[in-house]
Amino acid sequence: MTTFLVIVNIVILLAIILGLYALQKKHVKFSVRVLIGLVLGLLFGIILNVIYGTSNEVVSTSIQWFNIVGSGYTRLLQMVVMPLVLISIIAAFTKIKLSKNIGKISFFGIGILLVTTGIAAIIGIAATFGFGLDGVQLEAGDAENARIEQLNERVSTVENLTIPDQILSFIPTNPFSDLTGARSTSTIAVVIFAALIGLAFLGVRRKQPEQAEQFAGIVDTLYTITMRVVTIIIRLTPYGILAIMTRAAATTNYEAIVNLGQFVIASYVALIAMFLVHLLLISFAKLNPLTYVKKGLPVLTFAFTSRSSASSLPLNIKTQTDGYGVSQAVANFVGPFSVTIGQNGCAGIYPAMLAVMVAPTVGINPLDPGFLITLIIVVMIGSFGVAGVGGGATFASLIVLSVMNLPITIVALLISVEPLIDMGRTALNVSGGMTSGILTGRINGELDENVYNDKSDLHDVVEA
């Protein structure tokens, strides 16, 4: 009977996929198909959850088959992330404008990421006070106790990790190993390696322009091919999101969400408030925030469902260049940095909320201005090198809590609602990266306002 029910579920998913494909053949807009995939996946997952529960064999077996579509799509994006980071950064240096504005682009790109992370921390603190959240009220069950044991294995590493050690971990000793994602800081290590190659190119161009021109041509060709691979994979987004959302909705423990509902609500209030800050910053740049939302919907939806900022990078860069009119130089430079620096959700809001919640348990007054200022600074510094994958918020929280001499067990006590909150955090991370790219492009005169304001979305680009 179990096998029959699993086959029925697979057939239903395939039928929905065929329906989405039919919409594609009718040239329904890409963003609309992504949204339809999200909604249908959510409904299908909830139905499976209601009928079978979260631990039923039918659900677990069905999800294994669904993962061929969902996890397969995510893996394809992960496959291209490191090559894209490497070639994007190098290609950014081969652009004439970037070589002239490299200092300004670096300053504003990274600076905006860090400043918005500081603002995110302030919003997280305000949400914690506003909802009266208190870490003392949290209780540990079997799952939480198991999580605490896992965290204790990581704590020794984090506790001994000083800021100088953290900075040193960014520097690659074997860039080819980092290209495989061998370390949690591999992405930023690849960024540094690519930046060094770019700087070397600028030096060669001054002394040996012919060789530099040949190299630039090779890089341009590789970048074009890489982005074509990205386009091919992006076409699968509606199907990938359908399967990923079905898995998330079918396996979510809704009872745990109810028990920790106040924390979940406070988290999403903070996340939405920070997203509104992004829109406000877009407005200050004299750009339409509604256009930002419309064109950014596919990448934000994927980030929400996949819970991976790194996997969202190809869509991130594509949206900045083809949707918002940000120059390739700026998008290729700021995009990869946003995966590992200044993640507003994972490295900003979440660690700040946990620190304020747990402070009273060790006799610290969370309203003390000295404590709050120190916390915001630590959050901003700790946001360097946070891995842009699922679990990055945990690592960021461990760093912040350890530096502030606060207990880390609160991280484990929220494990039951972690996936749900991580969806919103990841979407905010990606939004922060795109906002930084847009503002940096605007400030440096490398944003095409006509492209930003046109009525098309990624549909025409993806289907080309």
Distinctive features:
mainly alpha; 22 helices; single chain; Proton glutamate symport protein; 464 residues
Structural features, described:
- With 464 residues, the chain is mainly α.
- The chain has a single domain (1-463), classed as Proton glutamate symport protein (Orthogonal Bundle), CATH 1.10.3860.
- Helices cover 79% and strands 0% of the residues.
- It is built from 22 helices and no strands.
- The chain has helices at 2-25, 30-52, 57-94, 96-130, 142-159, 163-170, 175-178, 186-207, 209-234, 237-251, 254-259, 261-284, 289-306, 313-323, 328-340, 344-358, 369-382, 392-403, 409-413, 418-443, 449-453, 459-463.
- Helix 15 (328-340) packs antiparallel against helix 20 (418-443).
- Mean pLDDT is 83; it is low at 140-145.
- This is L-cystine uptake protein TcyP.
- Belongs to the dicarboxylate/amino acid:cation symporter (DAACS) (TC 2.A.23) family.
- One of its GO terms (molecular function) is symporter activity.
